[in-house]
Every structure is written in structure tokens, then in C-alpha cells.
Hints:
It contains four helices and two strands; from the N terminus they run H-H-H-H-E-E.
Amino acid sequence: MRGYVYAQNGELEHAETEMREALRMLAAKRASLYSSQVTVELADVLHRRGSSEEAAALLEDVLGGLSPSGARCTRQPRTGCSASSPRTPARPSGPRSTTYAR
């Protein structure tokens, strides 16, 4: 929480330190949901401090290699992912029609 407050106040160095400590504590407790939230906030701080590549790597880890279709992906170095199951369109192609019951 302190890291978030520091980030909101523009104290990015303190924010980074606090968020990294929070991640260590959360990892020890195996609190993955909260770890993901802190990681996203840390990525924002890192990006704002000019460490965009590290921020992007953290976000890739949080996303867990999911593809847009929801299929799990096999991580490929520097090229994204390749779907481990066939990709299906997220939306049907063509005009949309909706039928309502009366």
C-alpha cells in the first residue's frame, strides 16, 4: 500500500522499493492474486522511471501467456506466443443479429 501511495505522490524510487518488498512478502505467503496487482503497479512505476523493457517483462509474466482467443500459449522468446490449441475467432464474422423472445 505504501508503494502505491508513493507512486501517486510521484516518489517513484520509494514506490519501486516498497513494491518490490511487497512482492517478496506476498511470494512468501503465496498470495498470487495480490502479487499480480502489485506487479502491475510496479510495472507502471518502472515504465514511468524509464525501465519500459523490465515493465513489459513483468506484465507478460502477469498475463501468463494468454492469447486473445483465451487459448494458453507456449511462450516464445521475443516473439510472443504460439497457441497450444486452435485459435477461434473472438467474435463471429458477418453482421450481428439478435433475436429476443416475446
